UniProtKB/TrEMBL annotation:
InterPro entries assigned to the protein according to its UniProt record, in alphabetical order: RNase_HI-like (IPR053576), RNaseH-like_sf (IPR012337), RNaseH_domain (IPR002156), RNaseH_sf (IPR036397)
A GO molecular-function annotation: nucleic acid binding
RNase H type-1 domain span: 1-135
Pfam name, any one: RVT_3
Stated name of the protein: Ribonuclease H
SUPFAM superfamilies assigned to the protein according to its UniProt record, in alphabetical order: Ribonuclease H-like (SSF53098)
Length: 193
């Protein structure tokens, strides 16, 4: 099965040294979304936007393989990652070299692959997922987080979980399930009432 893989990473509120988060989306060749994911790539010293971008690609490729993709068309808005994977730019960081090696090992498991740079506007869903990851995990890593609608949603899930006697980890799993099930706009409507 041929799949399209979109990936994105961010390091906020400062780069380097912030909270690195990622998001990815995987589509089949007909344009049907197969999966999407997000998470924390790194935090603190040594954490950069580029590390988060590489982790996004690594995690997306792992998931694509699990889904049965044997060909992948990779799209990302990080010129550095795209050009390094293509061999057009050198890798000067030991951490990025390790991540690039992991990505190349995963790519070797696909029958065919290609990678291309796309503008940020063409990568909105993966970018949005990396932003959600930041909002969800910022408080856990001491980065404050935003005060927008997603913080309202996080608060509501935590309060509901406490009322039901659930542990914080269970609340986090519930929130992650909601984020996977609903589109961002639907969740925003729920949160803003």
């Amino acid at each position: 099965m041929r799949c399209a893989v979109y990936f994105d990473g961010a390091c906020e509120p400062v780069n380097p040294g912030g909270l690195g988060t990622y998001g990815y989306v995987i589509y089949d060749e007909g344009g049907r979304r197969l999966d999407r994911g997000y998470g924390v790539a790194c935090h603190g010293d040594g954490c950069t936007n580029n590390v988060a971008e590489y982790v996004a690609l690594r995690e997306a490729l792992r998931r694509a393989k699990e889904l049965g993709c044997d060909e992948v068309e990779i799209r990302g808005d990080s010129q550095l990652v795209v050009r390094q994977i293509k061999g057009e730019w050198a890798v000067n960081s030991l951490k990025l070299m390790e991540l690039k090696d992991e990505v190349e090992a995963l790519l070797a498991g696909f029958a065919r692959w290609s990678v291309e740079w796309v503008p940020r506007e063409a990568n909105k869903e993966a970018d949005g997922l990396s932003q959600i990851a930041y909002e969800v995990y910022a408080a856990q890593y001491g980065y404050g987080g935003g005060d927008g609608w997603i913080q309202t949603l996080i608060g509501e899930v935590r309060r509901a979980a406490e009322a039901e006697g659930l542990r914080p980890e269970e609340a986090a799993r519930i929130l992650a399930a909601l984020l996977k099930k609903y589109r961002l706009g639907e969740l925003r409507e729920l949160a803003e009432g």
